[in-house]
């Protein structure tokens, strides 16, 4: 594995840095197309309704963050290619839970078994499926973990045009700094308004606005608990956390730390094929029309 990025003590941790980088729809779409073979500026311009200025800015940012190497075009680094599990989890969640897409999502076929599949979140140590509701993970914030350090810097993100959004609801969840923090708090069991405000340490107006947004999306219910749709976002969260902590490391230690109780190992997310049960790897995930 190529070198990780060291983060200074007391500053934003791996989660905050990653949400600031990947919580952007254009960046996700650029990575998607790169994983599908785009390497040249003209490739992205032909595939995405994106302006030259926005594309150039995002490619520069992703290159500076170590996801691309610039040479004869743009080549994914190991860090960039490793984002495939995050993209695959988003693809599957949007396919299942977001019925109205501007573009039709392709089906997924596992090259090894030749069958359509859904990715199944599993423990990489014992290969047991892990759900948000089965209470087999123990842990939470690690040495560099806190709500303040896990929230990305405030940035002004340009949302894509209406016909661009392969990830419209994912972007609503992780592309806003307060929505991302609120989703994280909900997965840690928070469901009272006062507790959300305490965790986010922001104004009641902001908390109320984000809760309304997540309720409107069907991610939170009237009781502010995660719905089935919200709980199904768990693989995206865990794959994002895994990617973040493989490539960004704070001086004090990890931002989040979990142990898988059935096997006793530290939890690291992996994905299996729902059809054959084999471990998924990037080269064996095939989109079909």
From TrEMBL:
Annotated Gene3D superfamilies = Winged helix-like DNA-binding domain superfamily/Winged helix DNA-binding domain (1.10.10.10)
HTH hxlR-type domain span: 7-102, 164-252
Segments crossing the lipid bilayer: none
Any idea which UniProt keywords this protein has?
DNA-binding, Transcription, Transcription regulation
Its recorded name reads Winged helix-turn-helix transcriptional regulator
**InterPro entries reported in the protein's UniProt record:** HTH_HxlR, WH-like_DNA-bd_sf, WH_DNA-bd_sf
Indicate yes or no for the key word Transcription: yes
UniProt keyword annotation of DNA-binding present: yes
Region forming the signal peptide:
none
Please, which domain of life does this record's source organism belong to?
A: Bacteria
């Amino acid at each position: 594995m190529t070198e990780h990025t060291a983060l200074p003590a007391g500053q934003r941790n791996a989660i905050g840095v990653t949400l600031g980088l990947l919580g952007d729809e254009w960046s996700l779409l650029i990575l998607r197309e790169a994983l599908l073979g785009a390497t040249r500026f003209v490739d992205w311009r032909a595939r995405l309704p994106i302006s030259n200025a926005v594309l150039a800015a995002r490619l520069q940012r992703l290159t500076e963050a170590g996801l691309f190497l610039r040479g004869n075009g743009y080549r994914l680094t190991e860090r960039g290619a490793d984002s495939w599990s995050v993209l695959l989890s988003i693809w599957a969640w949007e396919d299942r839970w977001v019925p109205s897409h501007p573009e039709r999502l392709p089906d997924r076929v596992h090259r090894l078994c030749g069958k359509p599949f859904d990715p199944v979140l599993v423990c990489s140590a014992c290969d047991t499926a892990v759900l948000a509701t089965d209470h087999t993970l123990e842990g939470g914030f690690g040495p560099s973990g806190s709500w303040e350090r896990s929230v990305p810097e405030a940035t002004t993100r340009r949302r894509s045009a209406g016909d661009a959004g392969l990830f419209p609801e994912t972007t609503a969840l992780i592309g806003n700094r307060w929505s991302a923090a609120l989703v994280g708090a909900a997965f840690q069991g928070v469901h009272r308004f006062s507790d959300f405000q305490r965790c986010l340490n922001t104004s009641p107006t902001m908390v109320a606005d984000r809760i309304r947004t997540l309720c409107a999306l069907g991610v939170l219910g009237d009781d502010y608990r995660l719905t089935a749709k919200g709980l199904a976002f768990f693989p995206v969260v865990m794959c994002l956390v895994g990617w973040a902590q493989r490539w960004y490391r704070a001086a004090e230690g990890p931002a989040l730390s979990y142990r898988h109780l059935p096997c006793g190992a530290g939890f690291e997310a992996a994905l299996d094929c729902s059809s054959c049960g084999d471990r998924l790897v990037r080269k064996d995930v095939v989109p079909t029309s």
